[in-house]
Amino acid sequence: MNETMMTIVGNVVDAPRRRETRNGHVVTNFRIASTSRRFDREQEKFIDDSTLYVTVTCWRAMGVNVDRSLKKGQPVVVHGRYYMREWRTEDEQLRTSYELEAIAVGHDLSRGTSDFTRVYQSAPPVVVPRDERGLPADESDKWVGVAGDASEADRSTSTTTERELVAT
C-alpha cells in the first residue's frame, strides 16, 4: 500500500490533548500551523502566504512524551503519515478530516535550543502465583498434553492415512 508521508515545520497552535482509548492506549493530539514565506522583490521584503493547519496524532509512548514536552507556540518539526478519516455526525452527515499520524516529533532547533531526556519504558510486573506455603506454585499440570499430544480423532486420522500409504 502506498502511503503519503509528510514533514511539516511550524508552530504548535494549541496545547496537546492527551487521552486514553477504550483499549488503554494513550493518544495525544495537537494542531500545527505552517506558514510559507516568500521574498517579494517589488516590496523588497518577505511576505507570508496562506497558513496550513494540520491535526497531528501521536500514539502510545510518543503521545506521552509529546504531552510532556510540547507547549503552545513552540516551533516543531513533525514527520508522519498523512491520511483522510471519514465519520458520520449524529444527524448522519458525512464528514472528512485530514490528519498526520506522527512517526517523529521534535523541536525545530533552527529557532531555539532544547534539552533531551531519554525515557525508559519499564516492563510490566511479573506476577508469580504462590502456593499455601508461600513458594512459587507448580502450574505445570496445565501444560501437560499441550505440546506433542494428539487427540484421539487425530490419531485415528493419521492411522488411516498410514494404512492407505502402506496399501498403495
Give the tags.
5-stranded mixed beta barrel; about 40% strand; alpha+beta; single chain; 2 helices; about 170 residues
Write the layout of secondary structure elements.
Elements: E1 4-12, E2 17-20, E3 26-40, E4 45-59, H1 60-69, E5 75-88, E6 94-107, H2 152-167
Parallel strand pairs: 4-6
Antiparallel strand pairs: 1-3, 1-5, 2-3, 3-4, 5-6
What is the helix content? 10-25%
Overall 3D form: elongated
* Rg estimate, integer Å: 29 Å
Mean pLDDT: 86
Number of strands: 6
By secondary-structure content and strand pairing, the structural class works out as alpha+beta
**What is the strand content?**
35-45%
Whole-Å distance between the termini? 48 Å
Q: H/E order of the elements? A: EEEEHEEH
Walk across the major sheet and give the strand order.
1-3-4-6-5
pLDDT below 50 for ≥5 consecutive residues: which ranges? Answer: 155-163
Largest sheet: 5 strands, mixed, barrel
Tally the helices: what do you get? 2
Could you describe the 3D structure shown?
A five-stranded mixed beta barrel has the order 1-3-4-6-5. Mean pLDDT is 86; it is low at 155-163. It has two helices and six strands; from the N terminus they run E-E-E-E-H-E-E-H. A hairpin with a 5-residue loop joins strand 2 and strand 3 (26-40). Helix content is 15%, strand content 42%. It has 168 residues and is of the alpha+beta class. It has helices at 60-69, 152-167; strands spanning 4-12, 17-20, 26-40, 45-59, 75-88, 94-107.
